[in-house]
């Protein structure tokens, strides 16, 4: 059986959403699923997106059912109209949208609608995204709803709270002499630093978080909102040619950057550890430096799970790292800071781990697995010092760390005292807010800001990225991640199909490129088994083609194994002329230069490599080698390539050796 192209690329047969490029003078935007992204003026990105979104009580985003779509374009600009319904089995909301662009650069996006039933939501309305490039740390003028105008700057480090509130309009310069103003009407808006969740933007959204949520839009209650974009100044003409279209990229390799390739490890979800034992030989050959073993007594984890962790460590040769959730619950099941409860719970974890050699231990109170909004009171929990002291007493001589087993967002909002921990950690997922392919790959743009922020407040301690994958293992913002019986792309998927596709492998390669350049000490990417597993194990969810063919590996295996083998290698400076499309990582490994390239787009790309000489050979993971990489990653063929013109198919990953 041969997998379809869609299965190779995305792990799902769900079609890629159609897009339409809209143009009006120097203004361009891409229409996708009824919303706008990549709004540019003379080729310069002004806004990342304008979207009308409807979210449920768990922050899941509805996929709008669009009808009566009309798209008209002529010399006077463009106009788009459509009707949409967002619904599930219990509730529904309908709205009509109108999008108009004019040659003078004016853009309006209006939405009017009503709830067809009482509609419970955490947010319904417009979201505006400002991009990062040319915006981070730059000036912005904020007009508030009371008419006040304040000059400020977009945050440099990731802001844990809301940098701007009560917003009516935002103005910023996109090129010398050209300013764009984005005006939002119909409700009060505020901004959050979207980089907290690995999104590559600053997000301005409707309805302040200080108001109660979820809230109910009563049946028949109207919705009327509008976003308007206006230009001041005359933009220069956009550059043309292949480079402007994104087909060509140049990667320049420089000297030693001063950082080293991080240690690479895999997550061990307790519920999948036994299944992973059956594939221990494949995991051993991948060569992970460590395995992060998740242990949560609230789920009934105990001695049996610890024993399985120990057997997996022995079978794979990897160091074991314990990720221990400390319940810290009183007799009624409520969070508590009671020192006696902390000592009791830590002692229970210690006793369950008796005889298991953990090289490192990280601890977190259970309540910190859930989000606490800025301005809210954190639930009762032991202080950082008491928590770490108790863990050190229970595991003497072992490196003890912590941070957040949820996302960087939660770590940024509850930062540990500098220097207290032996290492600092957090996890990540790129599908918290959006589930489409472009949004997933865009998240990599946020990583320099995240890594830099942790370094700034981490007290110089080793920085460990804990279990990170496309699939969400937990949901800090709702009851649980979204189940995915249809095997589709959607935000907050517990099981995301792209873990099994080339897009997932390219995203992993891009993540590791950023982590290595930033000097992160260790990265836990993917898992031994489960939704983010790098080896094939039959699951409780369908895995198209894999369940029939049963190959030993997922395509991500090739990427993780190849990077794990370079641990400690000197990282070289690299620069991609189109980092959104092509990510690159170069290291000195075995006395030669190894360059990894990842195509983060769904189109063919041609790459020219500069700054490195010698004969080049490559192992390329793409559509043509997908099956071979899954059946035996070690035998992926090595071919000669011309560094002046390296072709990369959609979501391809290339490992290139020079020398």
From TrEMBL:
InterPro entries: ApnL_C (IPR058789), ApnL_M (IPR058787), ApnL_N (IPR058788). Residues 579-656 form the D-apionate lactonase C-terminal domain. Residues 264-567 form the D-apionate lactonase TIM barrel domain. Residues 8-233 form the D-apionate lactonase N-terminal domain. This is Uncharacterized protein. It comes from Tepidamorphus gemmatus.
């Amino acid at each position: 059986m041969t997998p379809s192209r869609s299965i190779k690329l995305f792990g799902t047969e769900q079609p890629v959403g159609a897009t339409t490029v809209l143009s009006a003078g120097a203004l361009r935007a891409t229409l996708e699923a009824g919303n706008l992204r990549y709004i540019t003026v003379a080729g310069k990105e002004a806004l990342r997106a304008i979207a009308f979104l409807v979210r449920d009580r768990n922050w899941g985003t509805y996929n709008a059912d669009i009808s009566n779509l009309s798209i008209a374009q002529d010399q006077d600009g463009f106009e788009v109209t459509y009707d949409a319904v967002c619904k599930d089995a219990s509730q529904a909301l309908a709205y009509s949208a109108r999008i108009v662009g004019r040659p003078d650069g004016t853009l309006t996006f209006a939405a009017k609608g009503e709830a067809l039933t009482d509609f419970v939501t955490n947010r319904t309305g417009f979201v505006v995204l400002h991009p990062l490039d040319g915006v981070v740390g730059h000036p912005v003028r904020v007009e508030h709803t009371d008419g006040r105008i304040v000059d400020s700057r977009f945050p440099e480090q990731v802001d844990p709270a809301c940098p701007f509130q009560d917003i009516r309009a935002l103005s910023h310069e996109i090129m010398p002499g050209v300013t764009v103003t984005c005006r939002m009407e119909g409700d009060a808006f505020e901004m959050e630093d979207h980089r907290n969740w690995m999104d590559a933007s600053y997000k301005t959204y409707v309805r302040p978080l200080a108001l109660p949520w979820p809230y109910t839009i009563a049946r028949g209650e109207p919705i009327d909102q509008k976003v308007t974009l206006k230009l001041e100044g005359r933009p220069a003409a956009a550059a043309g040619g292949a480079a402007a279209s994104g087909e060509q990229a140049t990667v320049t390799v420089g000297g030693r950057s001063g950082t080293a390739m991080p240690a690479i490890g895999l997550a061990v979800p307790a519920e999948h550890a036994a299944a992973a034992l059956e594939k221990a030989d494949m995991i051993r050959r991948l060569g992970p430096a460590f395995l992060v073993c998740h242990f949560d007594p609230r789920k009934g984890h105990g001695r049996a799970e610890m024993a399985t962790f120990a057997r997996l460590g022995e079978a794979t040769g990897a160091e074991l790292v314990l990720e221990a959730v400390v319940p810290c619950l009183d007799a009624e099941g409520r969070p508590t800071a009671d020192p006696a409860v902390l000592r009791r719970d830590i002692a229970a974890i210690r006793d369950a781990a008796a005889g298991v050699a953990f090289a490192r231990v990280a601890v977190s109170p259970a309540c910190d697995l859930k989000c606490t909004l800025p301005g809210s009171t954190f639930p009762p929990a032991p202080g950082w010092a008491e928590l770490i002291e108790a863990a050190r007493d229970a595991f003497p001589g072992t490196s003890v760390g912590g941070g957040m087993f949820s996302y960087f967002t939660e770590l940024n909002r509850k930062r540990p005292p500098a220097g207290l921990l032996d290492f600092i950690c957090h996890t990540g997922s790129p599908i918290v807010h959006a589930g489409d392919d472009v949004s997933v790959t865009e998240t990599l743009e946020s990583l320099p800001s995240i890594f830099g922020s942790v370094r700034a407040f981490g007290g110089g301690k080793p920085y460990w990225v804990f279990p990170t994958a496309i699939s969400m293992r937990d949901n800090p913002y709702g009851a649980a991640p979204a189940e995915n019986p249809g095997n589709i792309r959607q935000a907050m998927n517990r099981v995301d199909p792209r873990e099994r596709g080339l897009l997932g492998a390219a995203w992993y390669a891009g993540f590791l490129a950023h982590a290595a350049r930033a000097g992160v000490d260790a990265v836990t990417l993917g898992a031994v088994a489960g939704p983010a597993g790098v080896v094939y194990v039959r699951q409780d969810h369908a895995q198209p083609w894999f369940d029939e063919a049963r190959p030993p590996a997922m395509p991500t295996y090739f990427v993780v194994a190849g990077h794990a083998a370079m641990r400690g290698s000197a990282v070289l400076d690299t620069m991609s002329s189109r980092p959104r499309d092509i990510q690159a990582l170069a290291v000195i490994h075995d006395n030669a230069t190894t360059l990894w390239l990842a195509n983060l787009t769904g189109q063919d790309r041609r790459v020219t490599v500069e700054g490195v000489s010698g004969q080049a050979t490559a192992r390329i993971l793409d559509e043509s080698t997908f099956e071979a990489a899954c059946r035996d990653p070690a035998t992926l063929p090595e071919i000669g390539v011309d560094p002046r013109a390296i072709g990369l198919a959609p979501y391809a990953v290339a490992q290139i050796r020079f020398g």
